[in-house]
Design goal:
By secondary structure, the chain is of the alpha+beta class. The chain folds into two domains: about 80 residues, Helix Hairpins, CATH 1.10.287; about 120 residues, Immunoglobulin-like (Sandwich), CATH 2.60.40. Helix content is about 35%, strand content about 30%. The strands form two sheets. A six-stranded mixed sheet has the order 4-3-2-1-6-9, with no helix packed on it. It has a five-stranded mixed sheet with strand order 5-11-10-7-8, with helices on one face. Helix 1 runs antiparallel to helix 2. The protein is elongated and about 85 Å long. Bound molecules: copper (II) ion. The site of copper (II) ion (CU) has 7 residues, from loops. Copper (II) ion binds next to loops.
């Protein structure tokens, strides 16, 4: 394992979520209360005369500055999280490298250093097995159309694009994780599913030495 702290995509996502949602709720409340106040205070009542004023530069200016600062703050947080997930994690020394190939309508996971592949989708359901708590490198590509490698529990999704290899590094906690193609890719798109088993490194090596045959750890 490398000296860098392993990046948890789930933690990064939850952190952003815990900042975005309160801000969104705050903005909603400001708008809803302002509309309600305007409706109640300025509702039609005698004597009916049109208002003379139509702008309030200091108020509008501060509102614009506040919005710009909020957007800049959220962009900064989002791009820093993306940097950690996409760039910093590539500095990790991976415990295993898995080539992921999307095709209509299956996933092929190739463990090149062990010399075998497993497949999941319309052809059957062989599991993707990875060592838990260690960096796992994925080389994503596609043979036909754009697919998307999505593991909801990790809060991670990345396109698999024909003619290009997208490199990504993920760390799994122990457990079983459902995965799915997240890019509509044709009639049997919904069958393009897989299951990832994150097991102890020892159980993983044992499974890989059996070349994925026999019992899934
Ligand atoms: Cu697909």
């Amino acid at each position: 394992m490398s000296v860098l702290a392993l990046v948890s995509t789930r933690h990064e996502y939850d952190h952003l979520f815990s900042i975005y949602v309160p801000i969104a709720i705050g903005v909603f409340l400001v708008i809803a209360l302002s509309v309600l106040a305007a409706v109640l205070i300025y509702r039609r009542r005698p004597p009916e005369r049109a208002a003379r004023w139509h702008e309030h530069n200091p108020l509008e200016g501060s509102y614009a500055v506040l919005l710009a600062c909020t957007a800049a703050f959220l962009l900064y947080l989002t791009f820093s999280a993306e940097h950690r997930v996409d760039t910093v994690s590539l500095g990790e020394r991976p415990a295993v490298v898995i080539d992921v190939t999307g095709s209509k309508w299956e996933w092929t996971f190739t463990y090149r250093s062990y010399g075998f592949s497993v497949r999941s989708g319309t052809v059957g359901r062989q599991p993707l097995v990875v060592p838990a708590g260690e960096a796992v490198r994925f080389n994503l590509t596609s043979t036909d159309v754009i697919h998307s490698f999505w593991i909801p529990a990790l809060r991670y999704k990345h396109d698999a694009i024909p003619g290009s290899v997208q490199v990504t590094t993920l760390t799994f906690g122990r457990g079983v994780f459902a995965g799915q193609c997240a890019e509509f890719c044709g009639l049997r798109h919904a069958d393009m599913i897989f299951v990832a088993h994150a097991v102890s490194p020892a159980a993983f090596s044992e499974w890989a030495r059996r070349r994925g045959r026999g019992r899934t750890p």
